[in-house]
Design a protein that fits this description.
Blueprint: E1 6-13, E2 16-23, E3 27-32, E4 35-39, H1 44-55, E5 64-68, H2 74-82, E6 88-93, H3 96-103, E7 119-123, H4 126-132, E8 138-143, H5 163-172, E9 173-183, H6 190-196, E10 200-204, E11 214-219
Parallel strand pairs: 5-6, 5-8, 6-7, 8-9
Antiparallel strand pairs: 1-2, 2-3, 3-4, 9-11, 10-11
Length: 220
């Protein structure tokens, strides 16, 4: 018999009610406004974002990687596993409660990745973190955000995936750096926007059969 999901905690956000549920000892799910945001049993594409992105800068002595958002910290775990001991990983997460959950009930999923001494956590908007960063601050920027780029994010002033935002991300990257983006579904126009912003683009489909998740990598 399949075990039922147990509600562990809730948090009200501008996008709706954020809920953390658990089934058994190891299965967790995050939902927002009733929609599944992420499931601990299905994180292959998020982990691929970190693995593919960090592989391009892992040979640097002390690479600085920016990740947003935190989620269940599985993207963070994969990044830490791919990076050297002297790396610095800054995580930007908008919701303080998500940080608390990763320090609490979600911690065992990732070996308490958030407690790794290489990790710095910023509670705030990653768009503002990128915009305020001095030029060439990061060796990699990895955006693991809700939904990712889609048709509605093509407007010029979209804070994450619009042309101006892509330009700011490029300016914040070190030479040879990488801008990685997770997307729930393919956005046919996004690679061309990345190219227009000055990135060399590759597209990856790391999900299981039938899934549409996409990882976009832009190198500078």
């Amino acid at each position: 018999m399949t075990q039922p999901w147990t509600l562990l905690a809730t948090e009200t956000t501008p996008e709706g009610k954020l809920e953390l549920r658990r089934r058994g000892d190891k299965d967790f799910v995050l939902t927002i406004d009733g929609r599944v945001l992420m499931n601990s049993a299905s994180q292959r594409s998020e982990e691929a974002l970190a693995t593919l992105g960090c592989a391009r800068v892992a040979d640097r002595p002390s690479p600085h990687v920016l990740i947003a958002g935190l989620g269940m910290a599985m993207t963070l775990r994969a990044a830490l596993d791919a990076l050297p001991r002297k790396a610095v990983v800054t995580v930007a997460e908008l919701t303080p409660t998500v940080v608390a959950w990763c320090r609490g009930p979600l911690g065992p999923l990732t070996g308490d990745a958030i407690a790794d001494p290489r990790v710095r956590v910023i509670v705030g908007d990653v768009a503002k973190v990128i915009a305020s960063a001095p030029p060439r601050s990061f060796d990699a920027i990895l955006l693991d955000l809700y939904e990712g780029p889609h048709a509605a994010t093509q407007r010029k002033e979209d804070p994450f995936f619009g042309p101006n935002a892509l330009g700011r991300a490029k300016a914040a990257l070190n030479r040879g750096g990488v801008f990685g983006v997770w997307s729930e579904e393919p956005d046919p126009q996004f690679p061309s926007r990345l190219e227009k912003a000055g990135f060399d683009v590759s597209v990856h489909r790391p999900g299981r059969v039938g899934r549409t998740h996409v990882v976009y990598l832009g190198s500078v």
